[in-house]
Every structure is written in structure tokens, then in C-alpha cells.
Amino acid sequence: MHLNFKQIFTAFMVLFAVIDIIGNIPIVIDLRKKVGHIQSEKAAIIAGIIMILFLFLGKSILNLIGIDVNSFAVAGAFILFFIALEMILGITLYKEESTNAMTASVFPLAFPLIAGPGSLTTLLSLRAEFEVENIIVAIIANVIFIYIVLKTSSRIERFLGANGINIIRKVFGVVLLAIAVKLFAHNIKVLFN
């Protein structure tokens, strides 16, 4: 096992940018208002497990069901697009009658918000460049940071206030929309070439 700090740091920063847990704080706060308590530990651990499993099995699973990475990324772009629309327009597209703290911690929080198509396809890209053990350390570091943000989201909400949350929600909604468009454009280009 050869740990390389530069690889760990780079992988951490790339995943941190793609997961964007800071930008997802408004979604976490909305989710908490809808369902009450969010199980931060469960959401962070499940997201970490999904990412580590996908690191090892992702390409094989996609190949097994006949889906290439680019098609997976295009589907992920649509999910991000609709989440961004919810943030920008203040509408609810995803509805589930039986939403409770337990199910909300897994869906949509752990997947697809934290361990979503963007972060999963990023893991496949990182695997081509970096050693697996360095990527795993980067995933674990991100999961710890995600847990801290989820645990302190109510304090962050009090600090920012309702107007601050709305402003951040709209700004990050536009950023998320841009990421979705970029993910879609890049992968659709690859699919048609």
C-alpha cells in the first residue's frame, strides 16, 4: 500500500467540488423541514459505502447491464438538472408520500445527492489516474466532512437566516444547473463521436 499525499489531496478536492455539500446545505435544510430529523451518520456512511463499492464495481456493473459511463453521466446530468430547477424556482418535482427521516437519509440525501452520478462517474475517472488506496482515503475524508456539515446544518441555517439560505439556494441552484449542463454536454458529445 503506497499512500501519496498529493494524490489524496487532489482526489479529495475533486470529489469535494463534485459532491458540493456546502452548496447542498439549502437542500439538506429543506429536507430536514419536510421529514424532521435527518440521520447524519447513516447518510454519510451509506454515501461512503456506495462510493467505495462503485470505485471497485462501477464499470463492471455498468458493462454488465450494457450501459457505458457516458450514458450513466448523461442520466446523472438530468437528475442534477431537476434538483437545480427545484432550487432555483422554489418548486417541488420529487414527491413521496411516505417520506420519513430514515428513507430521506438514504434517498435523496445519500443517493443521489452525495453519492450521485456526478461523484460516481468522477470516481471512475480518478481510478484511471490515481492509486485506489489514495482515492479511498479521499472518500473517507469527504465522508467525515459531509457528516460534520449534516450535523451542523441547523446551526448553519441559524447563522445564515432565511434570506441567506434563499440566496445561497438560488446561487448554488444556478451552479448545479451549470454542472448538469456541462456534464450533459461533455458526455453527449462523447456518445455521438
Tell me what the structure shows.
By secondary structure, this protein is an all-alpha fold. It contains eight helices and no strands. Helix 1 (5-19) crosses helix 7, helix 4 (69-89) packs across helix 6 (117-129) and helix 4 packs across helix 8.
List the keywords.
globular; 193 residues; 8 helices; mainly alpha; 0% strand
Question: Which percent range fits the helix content?
Answer: over 70%
- The average pLDDT is 85
User: What is the CA-based Rg, rounded?
Assistant: 17 Å
Cα-to-Cα separation, first versus last residue: 38 Å
Largest sheet: none
What global shape is seen?
Answer: globular
What oligomeric state do these chains adopt? Answer: single chain
* Total count of strands: 0
- Catalogue the unreliable spans: none
* Beta-strand fraction estimate: under 5%
Helix count? 8
Structural category is: mainly alpha
Strand and helix order: HHHHHHHH
Q: What's the SSE blueprint?
A:
Blueprint: H1 5-19, H2 25-35, H3 40-64, H4 69-89, H5 101-114, H6 117-129, H7 132-151, H8 153-192
Helix pairs in contact: 1-6, 1-7, 2-8, 3-5, 3-6, 3-7, 4-6, 4-8
